[in-house]
Write a structure and sequence with these properties.
The protein is of the alpha+beta class. The protein has one domain: Immunoglobulin-like (Sandwich). Helix content is 16%, strand content 39%. A hairpin with a 2-residue loop joins strand 2 and strand 3. The chain has two helices and nine strands. Strands 8-7-1-4-9 form a five-stranded mixed sheet, with helices on one face. It has a four-stranded antiparallel sheet with strand order 3-2-5-6, with no helix packed on it.
Length: 153
């Protein structure tokens, strides 16, 4: 029994050491004319805390999404597919309107070996409430190769 408690305590301490760091949430003050704003974020949580993944769209990596992090993505309007992949791929498609703000929430679902990315667009009220606890993540630096089987890893 004591060994189990010690193991659980050790895992929790390791998770605390893995906390996402960065500047606290700050709303984008002005979106360029003719563009849309997509806040891509992932609330902190114990489930899937060790799983991180690149979010990609339109042939490029946008951000390496970690628990407790967000990234403001300024996008061209029109249909767009956001996706990520660990052992399985998940994607979500929407039609962005110029001047509009969207909240794309990333989470992690159960996988065979590694947690699977999950996406959903949430309303402004929920998104605003959840994203305020997040910190700014840096943009991804690499493009996603077209047709790559490795996805957005």
């Amino acid at each position: 029994m004591n060994t189990a408690v010690l193991r659980i305590a050790s895992v929790l301490l390791l998770c605390v050491g893995c906390a996402t760091s960065g500047p606290p949430f700050e709303a984008v003050r002005e979106v360029p004319p003719g563009k849309a704003l997509v806040y891509i974020y992932r609330p902190s949580g114990l489930i899937g805390g060790g799983v991180r993944y690149h979010v990609a769209a339109r042939g490029e990596r946008i951000v390496f999404l970690k628990p407790g992090g967000y990234f403001p993505y300024i996008a061209e309007p029109g249909e767009i597919e956001f996706w990520a992949q660990t052992e399985a791929k998940d994607s979500i498609t929407t039609d962005l309107e110029p001047g509009e703000t969207y909240y794309l929430k990333g989470t992690v679902g159960v996988g065979m070996l590694v947690g699977r990315p999950r996406f959903e667009f949430v309303d402004e009220s929920r998104g605003w409430k959840e994203i305020r606890e997040c910190v700014l993540l840096p943009p991804a630096a690499q493009a996603v190769p077209t047709g790559a089987s490795t996805g957005a890893r």
